[in-house]
Amino acid sequence: MLNRLRRFGFGLLYNECAFTYDLVSRIVSLGQWRCWQRSLFPIMGLPKYDTVLELAHGTGDLQVDLLEAGYRTVALDLSPTMGRITQRKLWRKGLHTPILRADVCQLPLKSSSFAAIVCTFPTSFVFQPDMLAELKRVLTPDGSADFVLSGQLIGGDPVKALIRGIYRVTGQESALLGEDYIHAFFGENGFDAQIEVVDCKRSQVQIVMLQKRPESS
User: Fold this and answer.
1) Cβ-count burial of 116 within 10 angstroms (0-12 exposed, 13-18 middle, 19+ buried)?
2) How far apart are CA 67 and CA 138, in angstroms?
3) Interatomic CA distance for residues 58 and 82, integer angstroms
4) Which of 20, 75, 116, 172 shows the greatest Cβ crowding within 10 Å of its Cβ?
């Protein structure tokens, strides 16, 4: 029953109620959401010629950040509502990029076509072998995929405890994942994983950087 409620809630948030996504994200992160998203930038380094693919682009905030920083991008999400919100957000800022609607387990992209892939808070799909197989297929041999896996509010006040309880109910991570588990899982699926924890003002965010193993190229 709880799992069905979670799926129903996620369905609303990513479709009929997608217009509330930015507000909800900021509330449940106590204003840390944008810092968590932008924590990828020091790891990505300076913009390069290669195009960055963002999986599950949501409402497009990271797309705005990437484009304004000088990156070339392609945005992909399964939700048509999120695609429309992102398109409007980019138009208002005079920005343009291809926006694709597709399942992350069936990417409509050529093999070895991206040297950089990013995703913030990919929920459960990052732990699907089918998705990781597609990731290996579209990455170049020396490409990398950088994911913001989880964010953690620091401190024990009642509001933060309530937020962590909401995360547990919705099935999202409110704590950093175990490094042994991350290395083992992605290693079994053909990736070497590096893990970095980035500090924000009142929180920490966990990032995993995936590199294809030579035998997986």
Assistant:
1) buried
2) 21
3) 5
4) 75
CA separation, residue 211 to residues 133, 161, 191, 207, 215 (Å): 13, 35, 5, 13, 12
DSSP state of 178: P
Check residue 21 and give its pLDDT.
55
Concatenating the DSSP letter of every residue in 53-121 gives: EEES-TTSHHHHHHHHTT-EEEEEES-HHHHHHHHHHHHHTT----EEE--TTS--S-TT-EEEEEEE-
Measured CA to CA, the distance from residue 213 to residue 189 in angstroms comes to 10
Cα-only R_g, the chain: 17
CA distance 135 to 133: 5
Phi-psi region of 123 (alpha: psi -120 to 50; beta: other; left: phi over 0): left
Phi and psi at residue 58, in whole multiples of 5°?
Answer: 60, -135
Q: What does pTM read for this prediction? A: 0.79
